[in-house]
Structures are given as C-alpha cells and as structure tokens.
TrEMBL record:
Domain of life: Bacteria
UniProt keyword annotation of Phosphoprotein present: yes
PANTHER family linked: CYSTEINE SULFINATE DESULFINASE_CYSTEINE DESULFURASE AND RELATED ENZYMES (PTHR32183:SF6), PTHR32183
CDD domains the record matches: AdoMet_MTases
GO biological process, one term: methylation
Keywords for this protein: Methyltransferase, Phosphoprotein, S-adenosyl-L-methionine, Transferase
GO molecular function, one term: S-adenosylmethionine-dependent methyltransferase activity
Lineage: Bacteria, Pseudomonadati, Bacteroidota, Cytophagia, Cytophagales
Protein name, entry field: Methyltransferase domain-containing protein
Length: 200
C-alpha cells in the first residue's frame, strides 16, 4: 500500500514544525546504544544515518568520539534541532538531502537504520536496499531496526515481515543477524527486527 499523500520534504518538515513526531523516541534507543557500545570500528570510520530526524544516534556516536558521522534528512527542521542540541557536530556533516540522490561512491563503513525505511513508500524498498549497498564499501555494514508487524492504520509507518525484507537485501548483503530485537523500547516490543547485514 502506498501513501495518498506525497511524502516529500514539505510533508516531513511540517510534521516537525507541528510537533507531530510520534516516532521520535527522544533519545537513543537501547538496541542501537548497545550495538554502538560494542562497536570496534576506528573513530574515523565513515558512518551514515539516513532519515535521521533529530539524530540522537548521531549525537551518541559523536559524543563517543566518532568524528566522521553524517546524517541525511530532507526536513531542515530536524537537522536544525540536532545542530542546536549538539553545536559542535560538524555542520558539513548535516546533509539536507534526499537519501536516494546521495552519491553512490561506496564511501561508508556503516549505515544506521531506524524508522526511516518504514517511513518510505514501500515501492521504494528495493531501491533503498540497492542504494545502501551502493553507499557502503565492500564488507561495510547496514544495521538497525525494522518493524516486524503490519499496521492497521494507513502509513507511514509502513510495516512488513522478515521474509519480505530478506528479498530486498539478499542480492547485496550477507545476513549476520536478522531476528527479533530483545531490547526494543516498550511501544515497539515484540514488533522489531534487529538487522546487521554485511555488504557482499
Ligand atoms: C519517521 S521519521 C524517523 C526519524 C528518525 N530516524 C527517528 O527515529 O526519530 C522519518 C525521517 O525520514 C526523513 N526522510 C523521509 N524521506 C527521506 C528521504 N528520501 N531522504 C532523506 N530523509 C528522508 C524525514 O524527514 C524524517 O525525518
């Protein structure tokens, strides 16, 4: 099912301006925090958080010393929030850009997903997987959370299942981990998959 509304920059920015951001957990979520805490990448690793919104994951990684973290979002209001909260986050790493138009230069070591995939019209899912692969270096990682549920309301968010998602990612990625998350925030408990995929 597709959205009847155009899910463009105006749509998303207006949601931030109006404070209609029910997806926003207000802080980094435990599955991502725990993953980052055990991450053994060099601090110079190039990391992308697409559809990052207010960017709590970017803030967490930045504070942990990762100095090559980029966020890409089409809603300027979301990026402004991150910039104001974390004034020393490099301004040139705040990309006000459509994820699908980012240069496919295999430059990233890690891409982090949280409630971006589910915010896209589902017809874009195969292209999302292809674009993640194009942005990552060989052996790079796509990790994060995907909803493992079907929503009764029209999206966004749009739900799905592990079998459906596997079909998009399998052409480009090896599956390191792809199973129920055990430490989701309460409203998402039992309804999220933790994903860790390695680019072939
Ligand atoms: C549901 S929100 C999730 C935000 C954030 N990941 C979070 O968990 O709070 C989806 C985000 O994706 C952004 N977005 C939607 N389409 C996009 C696109 N094509 N490229 C970049 N960002 C996009 C929106 O502006 C919004 O900030």
């Amino acid at each position: 099912m597709q959205s009847d509304v155009e899910l463009d920059a105006n749509y998303w920015n207006a949601r931030y301006v109006a404070g209609q951001t029910g997806w926003d957990a207000g802080a980094i979520t435990p599955p991502l925090r725990d993953y980052f805490d055990q991450l053994s990448l060099p601090r110079t690793s190039k990391i992308l958080i697409p559809g990052a919104g207010r960017g709590y994951e970017a803030e967490y990684l930045h504070t942990a010393g990762y100095n090559n973290v980029f966020v890409a979002d089409i809603a300027p209001e979301a990026l402004r929030d991150l910039q104001q909260r974390v004034p020393d986050f490099p301004a040139e790493h705040l990309l006000e850009q459509d994820f699908f138009t980012l240069p496919a230069d295999s430059a990233y070591d890690l891409i982090v997903e949280q409630t971006f995939f589910c915010a896209l019209n589902p017809s874009l899912r195969p292209t999302y997987a292809q674009q993640c692969a194009a942005l990552l270096r060989s052996g790079g990682t796509l990790m994060g959370l995907l909803f493992d549920t079907v929503f009764s309301q029209p999206g966004p968010p749009f739900g799905g299942s592990r079998a459906e998602y596997e079909s998009y990612f399998a052409p480009y990625f090896d599956f390191v981990h792809f199973s129920s998350a055990h430490n989701s925030i309460p409203p998402r408990q039992g309804r999220e998959l933790f994903m860790c995929l390695k680019k072939k």
